[in-house]
Amino acid sequence: MPGELQILGRAVKQVQYRQHRALDTALAGVGTTLAQWDALRAVGRSPGASGRALAAATFQSEQAFGTLAGRLAAQGLIERRAGRGRALGHHLTPAGERVLAAGHGVADEVLAECFAPLAAAERTALLALLGRLTPDAPGDRGARGGSGASG
Q: What's this model's pTM, rounded to 2 decimal places?
């Protein structure tokens, strides 16, 4: 059994790695990366959220997310505004909204291709099984383009 679990863990990682590479490559066509687009998605889902909350939502350290948010702000894709206490709230700019929307289209295409070998019922079952493994995870249930990303 332990060998099977290791094989299963590696298979999950291989699928994730292939999906992330495909998304990152395709997102370059709309001028962004998977990490950047995932951050824009998180900001879009939670306007005004703190860097701490957005770091958790994007599976990054606070420091890594802060660096990424700085780059996104420099590109004019997000704005940081005074929030609660000393925290900064993050908001999409119109340019950020455009990149996010373009990324949704790209992700829909890439993910359709990634999951094409599975029938609709199999995709539904896979999602349900993965949900049982991550019951407390803040997910994309109902949100578009769930890369889990950071992918």
A: 0.83
pLDDT at 10 over 90: yes
What are the pLDDT digits (tens) for 107-121?
A: 999 999 999 999 999
Alpha-carbon torsion, ordered 134, 6, 19, 60, to 10 deg: 50
Token readout for 34 is: 């998977």
Q: Nearest CA to 147 among 56, 32, 47, 17?
A: 17
Say how many C-beta atoms besides its own lie within 10 A of residue 138's C-beta.
Answer: 12
Quote the CA–CA distance of 33 and 36 in Å, as a whole number. 5
List the alpha helices (DSSP H) in 28-119: 34-45, 51-57, 62-74, 94-114
Q: Is 82:88 a contact under the CB 8 Å cutoff? A: yes
